[in-house]
Amino acid sequence: MNDNEMKHKVEKMALERYGKAFTFVLVIAIVVLLVIEIFTHRHGELPIEEMFFFPAIYGFLAFVFIVMMGKLLRQVIMRPENYYQDEEDDRDDA
Amino acid sequence: MMPDLGLPPGLVMILAAIAIPFLPPLTRHIWMLLAVAISATTLLASPGDHLIWSIMGLELSLYHVDNLTFPFSMIFHIAAFLVVIYSWHVKTWPELTATLAYAGAAIAAVHAGDLISLFIWWEATAITSVFIILAAGTVAARQAAMRYLIIQVSSGVLLIGGAALYYFEFGRITFEAMTLEGMASWFIFLAFGIKAAFPFLNGWLQDAYPEATPTGTVALSAFTTKLAIYALARGFPGTEALIWIGAVMTAFPVFFAVIENDLRRVLSFSLNNQLGFMVVAVGIGTPLALNGAVAHAFVHIIYKALLFMSVGCVVHQTGTAKASELGGLYRKMPFTMLCCVIGAMSIAAFPLFSGFVAKSLTMTALGGTEYALAYLVLLFASAGVLEHSGIKIPYFTFFAHPSTREIGKTPAGMTIAMGIAAIMCIGIGIFPGLLYQILPYAKVKNPYDLSHVTGQLQLLLLAGMAFVVLIRLGLYPPEIRSTVLNTDWFYRRLAPAIIKPLVAFFMSLAKSVDHIIMMVARKAMAGAKWIAEHPVAGPVIPGPAALVQVMVLLFIMAIIYANFI
């Protein structure tokens, strides 16, 4: 294993460690929010918003929906990187 | 009070911009800062019309000041200041000249009290900003700049057309609140809509902004679109259509942003989505909502500039903004990463960051109306903001993959400008009163109550959790080098696909008609020549004589015929 590969591996491990730490903090924060939700009344702008843990559930589902729709959208509107390239070739100065 | 210079606000910056090419490169930025500072004395002016020019029987109000112009004028000056600092390392004059003139034109436009002067500055922002895009010097930038120019000028044409009709209809040109009745207001509405990047009128934004230089994009992101928001807030507050237009604007770009590979283009989609929130707020039109629109525009300029600055910094250092080629820079560019995260948390509206204190005004105002569906769309879009700007930008730039890339030193100007913008994002988040006291309508109460804070945190943290889950399950779409089609496809691909064959058909039709006419003409000439050269009445009478005989005969016959009638 050469030096570069070694560096790469170390970096990767560091990133994974940070990722795990981030997830851990996130889970703790969510648990805290859940506890607050149980013990306090949260006022919402709409009646539906006052449902138990509504913003959380809505946020989670919205995020998943956006990403999944994005994946679907790729099938329809994704083109090669040089898709508009011939536009440039049309010109004399290209 | 403001010393009356007899000049419209912002004009001093445009005049100063003209001098930039003749200054030694090292003094250019100091000169620019000076121009911004002098122009900023406008902020001390009392409400009213300070400068009226009478031209051709029209009274042009070039220096109008009121509660609505003030916050926009202020944030435009702040943005101009940040852009100058950020571009301190840029020594070439074309971009600097265009940038200062562009900012000046936008400030002048905010202070235009009538539709004609608004049009003049409206066009000035279009023309000056084109040179910012051109300054990138690439073929792609040149072509994007031309497309951008055509669309921006179309907006101006609609505006002047609308202004003329408005004058005929009402006999005045004052820029005031209008209703969507009659052609005049529709023209003006569309003119504003183009610059505000309404759905289907948005292609220019994502097309052109990412083609500029890293510094140019920061300048572009601040002015044009927020000028349009200002114009909508003054011209069309409470126009119901805006609620739905804005709601669509908040929701649609988020899907494009998920799959876009160019991170500056992702930020342009994100810009579009943010404009949606402001447009909805203008559409509601209550004092609280309009305050929300203004507050959102104010903080948005700062955090969006900060995001563009941090990604611009990465482009400056690595030469690319492609998510597929970046990642892992957190160790090499820690300060830029920190600023990017602050920008990301601000735009995602985390409590204690500037986005939160602005967005909650709009959400509260919308929640109090009957537009529950629009409210849910905006809530949905808030999760979208977290996705593309809150997570995607910092994650794919600074984390995601290990990087062995060597990075140079970031120019000091870039670092300082990012630092200032980051401090402002947090400052406004912690002390919302700073922002609230300059809002145009009514008093606003503190947004920090338990319900708001926990509700927002629930939305953001669970959406963040969704990201973690999707990444860990390998369901998050990978970064792919690609072009994502946007509404500019209609004029870059569809229109040429239809028009090119049509033009070719008519060209070939014209060619064949031309051919037939030429053939007939040639035949006729050949016939005449043949007659002229061939005697009809024997060898002694030459052709021309025969023709004369025919003519004489015809003449005689005509006379006889006339006699008989």
Task: Considering the chains and any ligands shown, give keywords for the structure.
heterodimer, A: mainly alpha, flat, B: 565 residues, mainly alpha, 3 domains, two-stranded antiparallel sheet, 21 helices, 5 strands, 2% strand, globular
Would you kindly provide a written description of the structure presented here, covering whatever features stand out?
The complex is a heterodimer of chains A (94) and B (565). Chain A has helices at residues 3-39, 54-77, 85-89; one strand spanning 78-79. The two termini of chain A are 44 Å apart. In chain A, 70% of the residues lie in helices and 2% in strands. Chain A has one domain. The radius of gyration of chain A is 23 Å and the shape is flat. Chain B has 565 residues and is mostly helical. Chain B has three domains: 1-202, no CATH class; 237-484, no CATH class; 513-564. In chain B, 70% of the residues lie in helices and 2% in strands. Chain B contains 21 helices and five strands. The longest helix of chain B has 45 residues, at 489-533. The radius of gyration of chain B is 31 Å and the shape is globular. The N and C termini of chain B lie far apart (96 Å). In chain B, 56% of the residues are buried. The interface between A and B is large, with 59 and 63 residues.
Q: Provide the gyration radius of chain A in Å.
A: 23 Å
Write the element-wise H/E pattern of chain B from the N-terminal end onward: HHEEEEHHHHHHHHHHHHHHHHHEHH
E-strand count of chain B = 5
SS-based class of chain B = mainly alpha
Oligomer: heterodimer
Let me know the number of strands of chain A. Answer: 1
Helix content of chain B: 55-70%
Q: Give the mean pLDDT of chain B.
A: 92
Tell me about the largest β-sheet of chain B: 2 strands, antiparallel
User: What fraction strand of chain A?
Assistant: under 5%
Order of helices and strands of chain A: HHEH
Number of helices of chain B: 21
Instruction: Strand order, main sheet of chain B: write it out.
Output: 1-4
Task: Report the sheet-strand fraction of chain B.
Answer: under 5%
> What is the global morphology of chain B?
globular
**Helix-residue proportion of chain A:** over 70%
User: What's the average pLDDT of chain A?
Assistant: 86
